[in-house]
Every structure is written in structure tokens, then in C-alpha cells.
TrEMBL record:
Domain named Alpha/beta hydrolase fold-3: residues: 105-321
SUPFAM superfamilies named among the record's database cross-references: alpha/beta-Hydrolases
Pfam short name (any one): Abhydrolase_3
Protein name from the UniProt record: Alpha/beta hydrolase fold-3 domain-containing protein
Single GO term (MF): hydrolase activity
């Protein structure tokens, strides 16, 4: 069930995550959780070699697969920055459709700033579905990850990719797959939603126009513990302890969770009132440990006069968007199509 109300209307009894999500999703995310625990070290370091070994990759495919084709594009060879471009093959093959240029969705994958990549098989499949089902061309950014590359490296990589998309070379490349980057959205899930917000702020400060942002269960936080964090701690795949480790891995050394990258409305965060941010769609799940921080973001942005829409999905856990196996997934797709068409 979807609603535009806040979490106070979602006081459903808690249930075991295995009883809330489909078995395929439960197995997928549970496996991720086990692997992530093995990869994180108590001293804050991370086993990147093992992480890459365990992360199943998918190659780019010029020949369409599951309704979409893809190719990898190097943006900055010096720092290893690249992205994977996805476009719906049926739309591109039909001359009547290809004449109508599709908007660009610059996507930032989740993984708490540390895990996954643009060629992780689960995100390759997700971006392929978005391109095919939502009428957009997707550019999935392979940004630098923590703890090797802390904040603001991921934000800088995202901004670089949007500048490329708006450049002459970027426009030429995107035109070949039926894309018009003058309509450009920044989107992401979990930590990727955090990146999308911060990249949008950077672009607004530079005067680079975006059409909007999509923040899918974005990873925000803060110093105090919220009611949802205390209530949902460890019950739906995510624990407070997990989140604390990732913030320490991502934020600049010596920072706490009042840092603006974690809490855009903390006492030390710069005001966003005068930043010309464009429409935002924020998706919040009723079983997400971070929902109070996400709702605080939405309501703070609205009070600042920013055009933010809220899609609150009462029964959604982290990762519901990874597989097309629930009504929640298709509710999200319909809302995305509506949001892209409005802008």
C-alpha cells in the first residue's frame, strides 16, 4: 500500500523480515548481509579484494538483453571513473519512438558508499528494468567508494558525470541511443540517494540545471537515535551498528554524524533555503530503520519551499526495488513514470 502520509500512519505490528518480503528477496539481502559482515573489519578497514571476488558482475551488452542494451563509457581514466549506459532496445529500434528523445537518469547505486558497482549484476538488472519500464536512458555511475575514497569523492564523481552528460561529447554520445540530456535526473537508492541529493546541490550551485531528483530510501542520519532506529534495529536486514560503521568509513576523519553529508539539516549544515533545487521524489519504506531521517529530510525541504513529493510505502523493506516480485515494485515504477512525465 502506498501513501503520501508520514510514518505515524504506518504503525503496523512488527513481523520477521522473512514473513514480510518474498523468499527470493529475503535470500538475496540475507546473503548480502552475511558477506558484508565478513568484509568489514573492526579497525574500519575493508577487504576490497574479497568484496570484488564475491560481487557477481555482469558485462555490458551491445546486443539487447531483457529489452535493453548497454555499454560502458570511461569518463576520467586517471581516477578510474566510468559509467554504464542502458537504453531500451525496442524504443531505440522503432524510428517513431527514437525520434522522441528520452530523458537521462544518472543513477547512483546503493551499498552504503562501500559495496557494489555499476556492473554488479543486481544493479545491472535493476537499471535495465528502469530503462525498459520507465522510458528513460540510464547512466549508472561507477563512483569511487569508501573507505579508500571518503566523502566527498563520490559526490565529485557524480558531478563530473553530469557535467560530461551536458558537454558536447556527452550529448553526442547520448544522442546515439535516443537520449536528450537537457532533461536530466539524478537518482539513487540508499547511499546512492544521499549522493543524488548532494550532487544536485553541487549542480545547483554551479548553475547546471537538472530536471529533478529521485531519492529511493536515501541514507541520511544524525547523532541522536530516532524512534524508528530503536524500534527496527536489526529486524529488517539493517542494524544501528551496521550504519555506524559505514558512516565512520565514509565521512572525513574526525567527523561525527552531524556532518552535512550525513544530516543535511544538522546545526552545522549550510542552509539549503536559497539553493535552487528542482522537484524531488523521495521514497520511504515503513520497515526502513532510517525512515525518520528520510521523513525529516522531506519535511525540512518542504518547509524550505522545495518541491518534494513523498511516496511512503508502509510494507517496504530495504531492497524491495531490487527484484520485480512485489506490488511495491510496480507501484514504484508507476510513480517514477508519472514523476518523469511531469517534469
Amino acid at each position: 500500500m502506498a501513501t503520501t502520509n508520514n510514518a505515524e500512519d504506518a504503525a503496523a505490528p512488527l513481523a520477521d523480515s522473512k514473513g514480510v518480503v518474498p523468499l527470493t528477496t529475503w535470500v538475496l539481502i540475507s546473503n548480502f548481509k552475511v558477506a558484508y559482515h565478513l568484509l568489514r573489519r573492526p579497525d574500519g578497514s575493508f577487504n576490497r579484494h574479497l568484496a570484488e571476488f564475491l560481487d557477481r558482475k555482469a558485462p555490458a551488452n551491445a546486443m539487447p538483453s531483457d529489452g535493453a542494451a548497454s555499454k560502458d563509457i570511461i569518463i576520467d581514466r586517471a581516477i578510474g571513473l566510468w559509467g554504464r549506459l542502458f537504453w531500451a532496445s525496442d524504443a531505440y529500434a522503432d524510428p517513431r519512438v527514437s525520434l522522441r528523445k528520452q530523458p537521462l537518469l544518472v543513477y547512483f547505486h546503493g551499498g552504503s558508499f562501500v559495496h557494489s558497482s555499476a556492473n554488479s549484476s543486481i544493479y545491472d538488472a535493476m537499471c535495465r528494468r528502469i530503462a525498459k519500464m520507465c522510458g528513460v536512458v540510464v547512466f549508472s555511475v561507477n563512483f569511487r567508494r569508501a573507505p579508500e575514497h571518503r566523502c566527498p569523492a563520490a559526490y565529485e564523481d557524480g558531478a563530473t558525470c553530469i557535467r560530461w552528460a551536458k558537454s558536447f561529447l556527452g550529448r553526442q554520445c547520448l544522442a546515439q541511443v535516443g537520449c536528450d540530456p537537457s532533461r536530466c535526473f539524478a537518482a539513487g537508492d540508499s547511499s546512492g540517494g544521499n549522493i543524488a541529493h548532494n550532487v544536485a546541490v553541487m549542480m545547483a550551485d554551479e548553475g547546471v540545471e537538472l530536471s529533478g531528483t529521485v531519492l529511493l530510501m536515501p541514507m541520511f542520519g544524525g547523532q541522536q537515535r530516532t524512534p524508528a532506529e530503536r524500534l527496527l534495529d536489526g529486524k529488517y536486514f539493517v542494524s544501528i551498528k551496521d550504519r555506524d560503521w559505514y558512516w565512520r568509513a565514509f565521512l572525513p576523519p574526525g567527523s561525527n554524524r552531524d556532518h552535512p553529508a550525513c544530516d543535511p539539516f544538522s546545526p552545522i549544515a549550510p542552509s539549503l533555503v536559497d539553493v535552487p533545487l528542482l522537484p524531488c521524489l523521495a521514497v520511504v519504506g515503513g520497515f526502513d530503520i532510517l525512515q525518520d531521517w528520510q521523513l525529516r529530510y522531506v519535511h525540512s525541504m518542504q518547509r524550505a519551499g522545495k518541491p518534494v513529493q513523498l511516496l511512503f510505502l508502509e510494507q517496504a523493506t530495504m531492497g524491495f526495488f531490487l527484484l520485480p516480485n512485489t506490488e511495491l515494485f510496480y507501484t514504484l515504477v508507476e510513480k517514477l513514470k508519472e514523476f518523469f512525465a511531469e517534469q
